[in-house]
Automatic annotation (TrEMBL), chain A:
Belongs to the ABC transporter superfamily. The keyword Nucleotide-binding applies. Its EC number is 7.4.2.9. It catalyses: a dipeptide(out) + ATP + H2O = a dipeptide(in) + ADP + phosphate + H(+). Residues 25-267 form the ABC transporter domain. It is an enzyme of class 7 (translocase). The complex is composed of two ATP-binding proteins (DppD and DppF), two transmembrane proteins (DppB and DppC) and a solute-binding protein (DppA1-A5). Five orthologous SBPs (DppA1-A5) are present in P.aeruginosa, which increases the substrate specificity of the DppBCDF transporter. InterPro entries: AAA+_ATPase, ABC_transp_ATP-bind, ABC_transporter-like_ATP-bd, ABC_transporter-like_CS, Oligopep_ABC_C, P-loop_NTPase. It comes from Marinobacter guineae. GO terms for molecular function: ATP binding; ATP hydrolysis activity. This is ABC-type dipeptide transporter.
UniProtKB/TrEMBL annotation, chain B:
The keyword ATP-binding does not apply. GO terms for cellular component: plasma membrane. It is a multi-pass membrane protein. This is ABC transporter permease.
Length: 336, 310
């Protein structure tokens, strides 16, 4: 097995809720106490993205998928853990030292209505990154590059003098993709890139991303909550719950034989045309708050197979016979 | 769908700004009056019949002549003369120039300081934000006029009257500019706080752009609309502040009068019947401030997105 392009090791991210020192002090039971609270968005995630694949990260709202995307891109700094790109640690680099990685790693955002600067024309939006990363290029080279990326995403280069608000959502997302492609990246983090789009446009943008992957040899970290997209797009899938990866497998394997009880429940919720399976699995309760994490397995409160060990001990990822990597004591013990 | 490139002028002609301007009679009239006054002030040396700064042209025998049409008027002085025999028309034209220079200069200084500090406070946040905004709070808790009077008095005492006359205009710009920057800084900070959460800022960060580049090239252009509105109204405020200071004797000297110091110089003669020395520059000042404020109101209505949408 070759070395991974991007590897995330023991990543944790907490967001402090308690504010300044004065706000942390509370009066409880006749004594002043300093109280600190934090949202535990990511709690120890290990992921490796192999060159050329599309690793999809799925999970419900608030499970930390977007936080992973933003931490990998350096928009957030990790509370603990490391991020490596091609063998080099990148999460602690100075801005100057990180510039080469900025060019190799790009990001596509969820909301195409907010991701284009409203005061810049499309031409300016695309030109700035190219000029910034290739200060030695001649104006003709820059222009050719802009034309090339605009063509490749299906936007007429003649529209360059227009502003973002003159385009539809799908067109804007194409322009955002063109901006990411303009610096010739190897690795693209896509944070729910199609969830804000009209259903009829989603497939077009998805196909565009797949074409770009093929022609440019891109590697994707694809964040989504749409399982149909995962099945269509992903090479491998990581299922997240409350800031942890609970199952990681090849797309086909995962959809055919989900092992983790949460994955099973998630997959059973996909609506099917022929509803041959009687009932989807209903989980009891709600997702616990990420402020006070449950002890042991984060899923134990809602898991029908949970026992005492699940309440005490945090499960690690183990590889099963089918090739799934599952973080579940019940699977490990053969109870499931 | 193919379109050729559209020029900035075409874009402006299709904009909502131009559309609403064309339909607003008050805005058109205000704009025309303001432009006439600005042009008259800028070209005062060409338009004015006399040069009020040139002592050789002044004859004390012509002092306190009434405007044309009144008994005892001289056709050479259509708006009469002041107590020193200066032609009122010329003096008012030059005075408007001085007042406008102070107004624009002070607002440019305010905007420069306000935008810089507002951007830093809003974008960097944390301690920088806390320190800058506390300074702004302290500054706002003093009245502009009070600060200006103290600083002006100190300047006047330490430089002497002659020297003070030469630097008065820069000093007034400095005082009014520095004491009003928190208004703009707060507005900029509020806009920056809203803008910096948008994804285009994240996209710029992901590209590896430096913090100053993101602040000035990506965020600043998106916070300019409210600054325009405030700056317009602040020009009028600065002109009034200057007039008030001049009236108190801490503004422009009489040898280089602004509208405010003209009003003040005439005030001593108003009881002796020479009302025009105070009234005419006063009228010009009122009209000038009024049209700027009317334009500011119109601009605020146009640029307020809630009114725009509704």
């Amino acid at each position: 097995m070759t070395s991974p392009l991007v590897s995330i090791r023991g990543l944790e991210k907490r967001f402090d809720l308690s504010g300044s020192l004065l706000e942390q002090i509370t009066f409880e039971g006749g004594r002043f106490r300093r109280k600190k609270e934090a949202v535990h968005a990511i709690n120890g995630v290990d992921l490796e993205v192999q060159r050329g694949e599309a690793l999809c990260v799925v999970g419900e709202s608030g499970c930390g998928k977007s936080t992973i995307a933003r931490t990998v891109m350096g928009l957030l700094s990790p509370s603990a853990g490391e991020i490596h790109y091609d063998g080099q640690r990148i999460d602690n680099l100075e801005r100057k030292a990180s510039l080469p990685y900025r060019r190799k790693m790009q990001m596509i955002f969820q909301n195409p209505y907010a991701s284009l600067n409203p005061r810049m024309t499309i031409q300016q939006t695309l030109e700035e990154p190219i000029r910034f990363h290739h200060p030695d290029w001649s104006p003709i080279q820059v222009r050719d590059k802009i034309h090339e990326v605009m063509h490749s995403v299906g936007i007429d280069p003649d529209w360059g003098s227009r502003f973002g608000h003159e385009f539809s959502g799908g067109q804007r997302q194409r322009i955002a993709i063109a901006r990411a492609l303009a610096v010739d990246p190897e690795f693209i983090v896509a944070d729910e890139p199609i969830s804000a789009l009209d259903v009829s446009i989603q497939a077009q943008v998805l196909n565009l991303l797949m074409d770009a992957q093929e022609s440019r040899g891109l590697t994707y970290l694809f964040i989504t909550h749409d399982l149909a997209v995962v099945e269509h797009f992903g090479t491998r899938v990581a299922v997240m719950y409350l800031g942890r990866v609970c199952e990681l497998a090849d797309t086909k394997t995962l959809f055919a034989t989900p092992r983790h009880p949460y994955t099973q429940a998630l997959l059973s919720a996909i609506p099917k045309l022929e509803d041959d399976r009687p009932n989807h699995i209903r989980l009891k309760g709600e997702v616990p708050t990420p402020v006070n994490l449950p002890s042991g397995c984060v899923f134990h409160g809602r898991c029908p197979y949970a026992n005492e060990r699940c309440r005490q001990e945090v499960p690690g990822l183990i590889t099963t016979d089918g090739g799934n990597q599952v973080a579940c004591h019940a699977v490990e013990e053969g109870r499931l | 769908m193919t379109t050729a490139t559209v020029s900035r002028w075409d874009r402006f002609r299709e904009s909502f700004l131009w559309y609403s301007f064309k339909r607003d009679k008050v805005a058109i009239v205000s704009f025309v009056v303001l432009m006439l006054m600005v042009l008259a002030a800028v070209f005062a040396p060409l338009l004015a019949p006399a040069d009020p700064y040139d002592l050789a042209q002044i004859n004390i025998m012509n002092s306190e002549l009434p405007p044309a049409g009144l008994a005892g008027s001289d056709p050479a002085f259509p708006l009469g003369t002041d107590a020193q025999g200066r032609d009122m028309l010329s003096t008012i034209l030059y005075g408007t120039q001085v007042s406008l220079m102070i107004g624009f200069g002070a607002v440019v200084l305010q905007a420069a300081l306000g935008i810089l500090f507002g951007l830093l406070a809003g974008y960097l946040g944390g301690r920088v934000d806390a320190v800058l905004m506390r300074i702004a709070d302290v500054q706002l808790s003093f009245s502009t006029l009070m600060v200006a009077i103290i600083v002006g008095a100190v300047f006047k005492a330490s430089f002497g009257n002659l020297m003070f006359g030469e630097i008065a205009i820069y000093m007034l710009i400095f005082i009014i500019g520095v004491s009003e920057w928190p208004q703009i800084a707060r507005t900029v900070r509020a806009s920056v706080l809203a803008e910096k959460k948008k994804e285009y800022v994240d996209a710029a960060k992901v590209m590896g752009f430096s913090t100053p580049r993101i602040m000035f090239r990506h965020i600043l252009p998106n916070t300019l609309s409210p600054i325009f509105v405030i700056a317009t109204v602040q020009i009028a405020n600065a002109i009034i502040s200057e007039a008030a200071l001049s009236f108190l004797g801490l503004g422009m000297p009489e040898t280089q009068p602004s509208l405010g110091s003209l009003i003040k110089s005439g005030f001593d003669y108003i009881q002796s019947g020479s009302w025009w020395i105070t009234l005419l520059p006063g009228l010009v000042l009122v009209v000038l401030v009024l049209v700027i404020n009317l334009l500011g109101d119109w601009l605020r209505d146009v640029m307020n997105p809630r009114l725009y949408k509704g």
